[in-house]
Amino acid sequence: MRTLLAAILLLVTIVMIYSGVAEGDQGMKKQLERSGDATSSYIRNMSP
């Protein structure tokens, strides 16, 4: 049972690391663009 649990935990960890590495700069760039768009939209809505 412990072996199965350790294997599942290792698999999940590998998948999380791979997805983080595969996303890389492009994913970070998209996230920054989205947050910038949300901030500018909020500021525009505040302005009369």
Structure, described:
The chain is an all-alpha fold and 48 residues long. It is 94% helix and 0% strand. The longest helix is centred in the middle third of the chain and has 45 residues, at 2-46. The mean pLDDT is 75.
Short description:
The chain has 48 residues and is mostly helical. The chain has one helix at residues 2-46.
What is the percentage of strand-forming residues?
A: under 5%
Percent of residues in helical segments? Answer: over 70%
Helix and strand string, N-terminal first? Answer: H
What structural category arises from helix and sheet content? mainly alpha
Rough outline: elongated
Largest sheet: none
Taking the alpha carbons of the first and last residues, their distance comes to 63 Å
Based on CA atoms alone, the radius of gyration comes out at: 19 Å
The count of β-strands is: 0
Oligomer: single chain
Low-confidence residue ranges? none
How many domains comprise the coordinates? 1
Supply the number of helical segments: 1
Mean pLDDT: 75
Region (Disordered): 27-48
Biased composition (Polar residues): 37-48
Biased composition (Basic and acidic residues): 27-36
